[in-house]
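Onboarding guide, step 5: your first structure request.
Type a short instruction followed by the sequence, for example:

Predict the 3D structure of this protein.
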Amino acid sequence: MTIDTQYKVQGNVAVITLDNPPVNGLGYETRAGIVASLDRAAADPAVAAIVLTGAGKLFSGGADIREFNTPKALAEPTLHTVIRAVEDCAKPVIAAIGGACMGGGLELALGCHFRVAAPQASIALPEVRLGLLPGAGGTQRLPRAVGVEAALNMIVTGVSIAAGQFRNTALLDELVDGDVLEGALAFAQRVVAERRPRKHLRDMRIDYTNADGFFQFARNAVTATAKRLPAPVKCVDAVAAAVAMPFEDGLRYERELFRQLLLTPESRALRHAFFAERAAAKIPGVPRETPTRRVETIAVIGAGTMGTGIAMAFLNAGMPVTLLEMTGDALDRGMSTIRGNYESSVAKGKLAREQLDRAMALLKPTLAYDDVRSVDLVIEAVFEEMDIKRQVFQKLDAIAKPGAILATNTSTLDVNAIAAVTRRPQDVIGLHFFSPANVMKLLEVVRGAKTGDEVLLTALEVTKRIRKTAVVAGVCDGFIGNRMIEHYLRQAMFLLEEGASPSQVDQALERFGMAMGPFRMSDLAGNDVGWRIRKRRYVERPEMRYSRIADRLCEQGRLGQKAGLGWYRYASGRREAIPDPAVEALIEAYRQEIGMTSRKITHDEIADRCVLALVNEGARLLEEGIALRASDIDVVYLTGYGFPLYRGGPMLYADMLGLFNVQRTMRRFAGNPNADPAFWEPAPLLARLAAEGKNFNGE
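The system replies with structure tokens like these:
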């Protein structure tokens, strides 16, 4: 047998164990090992039955992602061949499902003659989340096993369901409360003793009344929620084929739909996002054997919006948090905010009262720096001013224990300058959470010039514990996300100067797929945030051109939703953005002031200018080494800035457009008489890759 598949005979039962960590993926060696083991068991007269199981605490997570886009993925025996070998085996094959059984793993189990499982085992066909559908019979066998409606829901959503919920269905022959392998061996003995005939799901007939009407309803419902993703609707079509066609015809139809989806840009984008998130955790140049530090206790300095959200992120992970503020009123407000957020979750049924009590018991409020002396990780979340942050770090340097990690939540400031006020710059790192920090998935881990490797790796471990997606960034103004978004917003402002309205710009970018347009986003974040940054830019970067429309808006006190007025107006207690004639008048007055004649601007021009501004700055970040890889930038924008998942992130989007076309479009924009030609000068990396016919992601 191969090292990925173990074979052992116990009495008169052969046990084939999938052993391909971390998820017992069905790679080439594993597939070949299964078929070889089946042949060995079939040829052994002492073997009366076969149990197929997985090593560790799971059955199989499906395809081996390490083989994606390699010849091995399509090499025989394919998963189709393996499943057919299982079905055709003359001796009964029993799947023993002790843990996760997903994707191709579930399709393999569906091909077995019998299945036993632990009640808590996770059952899923998640291919839709990669823009695909199950391609090895899952859409044909699962409806026969659990019924049409249950199968369709699983396949269209990709949700995981506990095996116990499939009691009394053809999916499972027995639920095992104890050791699943022992239960499967005992079940195999009964199958042999009772001479039970081998069962094939493929032979089951599906009778479903008014199938055409049901599937049309399902198509309509899925189309309304799929958000330009073709896979969910194709999933409906495949399950409909299981009802309408003979099994073999349905299998061929499923395979054809799978091939169609594999070639769509949406599936490419979803698969790119899947791999990009995993690649982001890999840091070149850091030895694997680098030790990490123990982090069990946390302190957060500052109980404002960010500080309270950060505290909740750790409380939700069961980690004790000390929350420090300078005044009792500020501390009380912070504690009230945290409790209020938890109370709201309880009221909505999203959190049990016991969970609230447990979280609050882990939270220690304090006004004294002495109370953070012994914690393992301190996160500063005070006002975004360098002098204030330096003062905080000087105090932390004086009192924090040796080996404590000192982190700043700054969104734009120089982490190296903050670290320089301490005697331990190797222990200083940036942890840039996104608001609301207890909800947003993204966390930029900012590696200072002197940040130690073990501190970096520890930060990445901690990120996993609080269920965030980490992307490592170098030190620059704004790191990855905010440095890029500044140019996106600059271009949005120039569009206002030239004739667009805030609502038109927002509509164009939301039509492109952004979760929220730039002006609604600014109102939500607070327009004073950008105003403060621009004031700093006017001093530090006087050569950089900015529209002053946003400054005029802020000067009128229109700071966004919190003020009830921003780029839009907001009714009391409501978040609906209502276009305001006063803003249109302000913009028109500014156009007259600078001598700009308004022109008609298309939605396509708006989307292209704003998105390509992101791409060009992203290319500069790559060349400077601020971002480690193009896919890291995509992860930042998919998880933190509402970039549409089906486009894969700004850098993949540029790759799919073709960098030659991107550069050509940018040069056209530079020819606009109102444009800043320097803005549209292609970044050297972009120009070089375009000239060489290459792309950012090497795909």
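Each response can be followed by summary notes, for example: Residues 603-624 form the longest helix (22 residues).
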